[in-house]
Amino acid sequence: MGKVLKIDFVGAGNLAWSLAPALENAGASVRNIYSRNINNAQKLANKLYEGQAKADLDFSGTGADIILIAVSDDAIEEVAKEIILSDDIIIAHTSGSKALSTLGYLATPNIGVFYPLQTFTKNQQVNFEETPILIEGDNKLTTENLIQLAKILSGNVSIISSLQRQQLHVAAVFANNFTNWMLSHSEEILQAANFDLTIMQPILEQSIAKAMQFGPKNAQTGPAKRGDFEVLDTQMELLESQPEKQEIYKLVSQQILDYYQTQLDE
User: Fold this and answer.
1) Of 59, 99, 100, 199, whose Cβ has the fewest other Cβ atoms within 10 Å?
2) Domain check: are 235 and 145 in the same one?
């Protein structure tokens, strides 16, 4: 058995709430939790065997091997400016959109990124074994230690650059965040007709399965793909009293129409 890594956290939000217990369950020692709101830090610490809330950003004497910064993107740079570290500690942020250089304010040379490509909500269990974890390190020591940490959680660990990670994050926004927002519009339309969103679960699961098996463009169906203008016009009329939804419907339908018409013309 390898060395038990000692991990501290800066941040006690959705990501830390999932990641800290998962790391502990996988064999890491998760100890100090800092949050600007000490109550949030204490709540997370209470979930951990060795966890304790920390009231300040002085991590110079905690004995941690790795500090994970799990805060909002706009707070990472502020943390990097204020945190106090020991000389040899490894510190990594967990953002998909922020470059490694965001930690450039730190005195330590051992900076990195530990990015789980997943969506996180408090008290919602995450399957980390299948979650891709993307690693970037400023030197060999940092990279190797972050890989070691990632591999106790996941069987899908890769080393990528800041640019690659940022591209992945944009792709995830389309695949995850935008899809979820479309579902919120679908739910409102369903509720107006006295339906529940659960009626969409079978078609959603089938759509994702087909997209993953055949590719999204090959799996596309619907009136815009067929060029069925009668249905498109009827549905636009149904959305007449909901201009926000009508605008989205028109924009996305036009993109689909344009793409598949181009394919027919080639």
Assistant:
1) 199
2) no
